[in-house]
Amino acid sequence: MGLLGKIGHIFLSHVYMLLDLFGLLSKSIITSISLFSINKFIIFWQLFIRQLYNTGLKATYINTIIAVLIGILMMSLTFSILGENIRFIDYYAKLFVLVIIREIGPLISGVILIARSANAVTAEMGYLKQHEQLQVLKALRISPVYLLLLPVFYAFPLSLLLMFFYFDLVCIFSSWVLMSLLHTEIISLNNFLSIIMQQISLNEVIISASKALIGGLFIGLTCIYYGASVEPKFASISKSISSSTTSQLILLFLINILLSVIAYR
TM segments (predicted)? Predict the structure, then answer.
């Protein structure tokens, strides 16, 4: 009964978390109406650009390294299986779309976003909550939702979408470089890219973009939720970061798997 009680408690806590996330989602949408004010939009735009820079642009180097390694791995494995096959490039293009664009790309980009940026936002929110800075903002009649939530609400989905697009391009380039070294048939980068693009349907683009946008949205909301849940205790921030990371990974994989099952069944 003790084990069942713990499982039930964990399940209920995640259900309550999801309800709170949808509450944050609705709050963000409602508060976005205030952005029609020019003065508020100017302030929001500065905060949004700052968050987009910290979330997406600063993650470029780690995104590049992992994308290069994945591209090399994909090409080397494909070449070890097919060798000097006459339709090697066609087979690789289909495999690239199936593995990288459909599944691996969104997942790896999401994991980079969680590890590189989401934990930092959770820590920042936790620090503000622990030192009662949110109450100070309310006393000054400054909405924490407008100042802290909205930049994350818009920057995280866009950052993940750009990271995914960049990840694919770097994978393609690193694959082409390795193929040029291994394969006797020399093909230009433009032709190699066009062959891969021919395998990408409109459905692939819509589903991949949906994974990035929805995944980035819930990653951002989750880190805000756990950051705002910090208590005035010594280890509360580290505990919130740990819980936030776990929940974000579960949501990321759940969203990607559900969209893949719905779209490609």
Answer: 29-49, 61-83, 95-115, 145-167, 173-193, 205-228, 248-264
Count Cβ atoms within 10 A of the Cβ of residue 55 and give its class: 0-12 exposed, 13-18 middle, 19 or more buried.
buried
Structural domain containing residue 205: 47-264
Task: Look at the chain and report how many structural domains it folds into.
Answer: 1
Q: Taking the complete model, does pTM exceed 0.85, yes or no?
A: yes
Residue 36 lies in a domain: no
Q: Is the CB of residue 262 less than 8 Å from the CB of residue 100?
A: no
CA distance 35 to 53: 20
Please, what is the end-to-end C-alpha distance for the chain in angstroms?
A: 39
Q: How far is residue 207's CA from residue 257's CA, in Å, rounded to a whole number?
A: 11
Is 82 a member of any domain? yes
pLDDT in tens, 132-168: 777 777 776 777 777 788 889 999 999 999 999 999 9
For residue 105, CA distances in Å to 76, 157, 207, 222 come to 18, 15, 12, 21
